Amino acid sequence: GMTLTHLWPVEHLYNRVPQSLFWVFALGWVIHFASSRSERLASTAALLIALPLMLMTGLVHVQVTWVVAGGLALLWIPEVALPRAVKSVVQVVGASAFYIYLTHMACMDLMERIAHVHNPLLLALGGVVGGVLAWLGAERLRQTSAGRTQDPQLA
After folding, report:
1. Angle formed at CA 94 by CA 33 and CA 89, multiple of 5 degrees
2. Coil, helix or strand for 23?
3. What distances in angstroms separate CA 133 from CA 11, 98, 124, one per listed residue?
4. 112-132, pLDDT tens digit by residue?
5. Mean pLDDT, the chain, integer
6. CA 84, CA 72: separation in Å to the nearest integer?
7. Given this model, what pLDDT does residue 106 score?
8. Largest Cα–Cα distance of the chain, in whole Å?
9. Measured between alpha carbons, how far is 16 from 26 in angstroms, rounded to an integer?
10. Contact 1, 22 (CB under 8 A)
């Protein structure tokens, strides 16, 4: 990651390009596929070895803390008990995470420009709600199109 940024400077894009943080995706894959105790120990070691590298690449301490704490939690906490209502919300937000990622900035921008909302918490909530709505719409479209292709009358 660090060498690539010297060969391919992207400061004008605020270093927000996939190749600058590919190692985060790779580390996530390692954590995801670690199933045995020895694999989890090796993944923990990789996470701790990556800790100073994360700080050297320009990530701020808060980001590094979330990556390390989240990685360790994923590796060593097999499940978390939640009340049913909270579990439902977490499941919906988890299922729609990709859509939240894709749409949150547009939703927040619309809220600022049209509704003149400037409260960061309301903007963040609006970004999440907008992403969930986008996911629900995509799921509805997927289900509708899947139903059409399976209908023998349309074949």
Report:
1. 140
2. helix
3. 33, 12, 14
4. 999 999 999 999 999 999 999
5. 87
6. 25
7. 95
8. 61
9. 17
10. yes
Structure tokens at 45: 């070691």
Residues in the chain: 155
Tokens matching residue 1: 């990651």
CB-count burial class (<10 Å; 0-12, 13-18, 19+) for 117: middle
Q: What is the pTM of this model?
A: 0.65
Map residue 111 onto helix, strand or coil: helix
Task: Answer whether 71's CB lies under 8 Å from 27's CB.
Answer: yes
Cα separations in angstroms, 67 against 115, 120, 135: 34, 22, 25
Give residue 19's identity as a one-letter amino acid code.
Q
Q: Report the pLDDT value the prediction gives residue 60, as an integer from 0 to 100.
A: 78
For residue 43, count other CB atoms closer than 10 A to its CB.
21
